[in-house]
Amino acid sequence: MILASALIAAVALVESVAAHGYVPQIKIGNQYIPGWNVPTDPYTTPQPLRVVRATKPDSGFISDPSSGDITCSIGNSFLPPGPITATVAAGGTVQMLWNTWPIGHYGPVLNYMAKCPGDCSVWKGDTGTPWFKTQQDVYSNGVWASDVLAQSNFTYTVKIPSNIAPGNYLLRHENLALHGAANLGGAQFYPVCVQLTVTGGGSLNPSGLGFPGAYSATDPGIHFNPYQGEAANQAYVPPGGPVYPGLTF
Ligand SMILES: *[C@@H]1O[C@H](CO)[C@@H](O)[C@H](O)[C@H]1NC(C)=O
Hints:
This protein is an alpha+beta fold. It has one domain (28-234): Distorted Sandwich (Coagulation Factor XIII, Chain A, domain 1). Helices cover 11% and strands 25% of the residues. The chain has three helices and eleven strands; from the N terminus they run αββββββββαβββα. The chain has helices spanning 2-18, 145-150, 230-234, and strands at residues 25-28, 31-34, 86-89, 93-97, 109-115, 131-137, 139-140, 143-144, 155-159, 167-177, 188-199. The strands form three sheets. Strands 3-11-10-5-6 form a five-stranded mixed sheet, with no helix packed on it.
């Protein structure tokens, strides 16, 4: 009995590590830039600097949207420990190249940014309301955005607004999996933060959302049953409110 439950626990642990996606690489223009490679980067000495914040200890999901992990990843780690940033022009794109994403982990793909007060690598972004929503894909033509991502070589293209002020930003890109979200606390959050330097741009300095703060477990977009059928899915409203008004692309 003890042996059996230990075995089940071990299998569950392996599955929790293996089944979930992470972002080992991003692409800006024609350039591939290393992200956070969960199976190797945490175990490499010296710790590699990456533009994608670490998730530690693995790529498991966050289930409590009010926890400190919700900002950027499990542990909301400062890693990489030094200044490193990927440069992108305002109005340009950042492709998020997930290693995998399971078909059927239904949900929206949500994107936020926050302007770092200086060097992003020493700023957690977890206090106040520095975040604003830039882009969201939800459900259309009977398909969840997560399934579109899974069928697009696990790639999602983030658009950087053309009229935000230049400077250093955290991009918070998130898969929200709702396959277990009919139960309160059953939603799975997979936020990924990228340290960006935005060039060009305009003078808009949006903010207004906090992570933690913007989400709560009882939000209708978080406590949601995605198996109710087409009409319910079409009526689904994701958490975090609308895209910040006035952004141009
Ligand atoms: C799929 O994405 C990987 C990187 O995640 C890339 O190396 C590969 O070229 C892509 N394949 C296609 C067909 O675009």
